[in-house]
Write a structure and sequence with these properties.
Blueprint: E1 6-10, H1 15-24, E2 29-34, E3 47-49, H2 55-58, E4 67-70, H3 81-102, E5 106-112, H4 117-121, H5 138-157, E6 160-166, E7 168-169, H6 176-181, E8 182-183, H7 185-197, E9 202-207, H8 219-225, H9 237-241
Helix pairs in contact: 1-7, 3-5
């Protein structure tokens, strides 16, 4: 019987991190990273508190880990430079470097649609992962940095790093924009698991559900990661837009 992989999820208190912890705990042996406070009833017993902007705090969390799902970040598109620098740039470097030093072979990096947000602003659709980045915020800039840093760690050190440009993670879409950028919780868990298991050394993939109105191409996510999204925001279209729209 093959031993289950030991997976560290950083940012396990966040909306996506907490959902992944619940949905992946039966598939992997999880270690959950929290910034300051551990929930009263965490999904698993193996927890770790660290400020990822401090290398000495996050590095020991890598011991015995087979894969890191790096979710910890300041997720706000209005985040000031100081927060983006510490949490998203220095923090991501620390996670990647700590993983490298510990011999962790796989990282799944939570990137974002905001890396390409100016295409959305200008309605220049569809959008493909091979196009030049056009971030719409310092948050988007920081995630573009993470993607480039991932490419460097793959080429220089031989790690496997999969970057997922995550759409709008919600239980259900709320408005017209959500109809094309929604990522459901169960599709999120599936695409992250596909990334963990992928033999690819590197890749950048859009992570959204099977939305009929999507503007981002998920062909390579389906073909290369084996992603099979189950949810389509279209079932909420009449409720959001009105009948016949």
């Amino acid at each position: 019987m093959t031993a289950r992989k030991k997976v560290l999820i950083t940012g396990a208190a966040g909306r996506i991190g907490s959902s992944l912890a619940e949905r992946l705990k039966d598939q992997y042996d999880l270690r959950l990273h929290y910034h300051q406070t551990i929930p009263e009833h965490p999904p698993v017993a193996d927890t770790w508190i660290a400020d990822i902007s401090r290398f000495d705090e996050i590095a020991p969390a890598m011991n015995g880990i087979d894969a890191v799902v790096h979710m910890a970040a300041d997720p706000s598109t209005r985040a000031p430079w100081e927060s983006v620098l510490e949490r998203n740039i220095i923090g991501t470097y620390n996670v990647f470097e700590a993983a490298r030093q510990a011999g962790v072979p796989k990282i799944v990096f939570a990137s974002t649609n905001h890396v390409m947000g100016m295409y959305d602003r200008d309605r220049q659709w569809p959008i493909y992962t091979h196009q030049p980045v056009r971030p719409d915020s310092l948050y988007g800039v920081s995630k573009a940095f993470g993607e480039v840093l991932a490419r460097y760690y793959v080429d220089q050190y031989g790690l496997s790093i999969i970057c997922l440009r995550i759409g709008w993670f919600l239980e259900r879409p709320r408005d017209e924009i959500g109809l094309w950028m929604w990522l459901s919780p169960r599709d999120c868990a599936q695409v992250v698991a596909r990334a963990i298991e992928s033999p690819l050394s590197f890749g950048i993939f859009y992570a959204i559900s099977r939305n009929s109105r999507r503007h981002w191409d998920i062909t390579n996510t389906i073909e290369l990661l084996g992603y099979r999204p189950e949810d389509d925001a279209e079932i909420y279209a009449a409720e959001i837009l009105g009948p016949g729209v």
